[in-house]
Design a protein that fits this description.
The protein is mostly beta strands. About 0% of the residues lie in helices and about 65% in strands. The chain is built from no helices and 11 strands. Strands 2, 4, 5, 6, 9, 10 and 11 form a 7-stranded mixed beta sheet that branches. The protein has a 4-stranded antiparallel beta sheet with strand order 1-3-8-7, with no helix packed on it. Strand 7 (about 65-70) and strand 8 (about 75-80) form a beta hairpin. It is elongated and about 45 Å long. The N and C termini lie far apart (about 40 Å).
């Protein structure tokens, strides 16, 4: 089994910063991709930032230059540093991890953490 623990959501004023963390644990053999997605009211879930096993990090155009994704392989963890936050960043942020466990491939989503940016 694979479990995800998300942390770091909250309320912040525009221009402020938040740091999201996601840690995967369990019967993990390898991780192929790990990162953060978000969903705002009236919008579909979208990629925020994710890193692949090949080392490529992808960012949404809307967060480029403001958000930074970092990976801590030893802890199966990714951190998302979010700076210069805007009200449009308000959404539920979901961690996603996919890879291989001891029994099968997997694709897991966290329960989501709310990020609210006030003007």
């Amino acid at each position: 089994q694979v479990q995800l623990v998300e942390s770091g959501g909250g309320l912040v004023q525009a221009g402020g910063s938040l740091r999201l963390s996601c840690a995967a644990s369990g019967t993990i053999v390898s991780i192929n991709a790990m990162g953060w997605y978000r969903q705002a009211p009236g919008k579909q879930r979208e990629l925020v930032a994710a890193v692949t096993s090949g080392g490529t990090t992808n960012y949404a155009d809307s967060v480029m230059g403001r958000f930074t994704l970092s990976r801590v392989n030893a802890k199966n963890t990714v951190n998302l540093q979010m700076n210069s936050l805007k009200p449009d960043d308000t959404a539920v942020y979901y961690c996603n991890v996919r890879g291989v466990s001891t029994s099968s491939g997997f694709d897991y989503w966290g329960q989501g953490t709310q990020v609210t940016v006030s003007s």
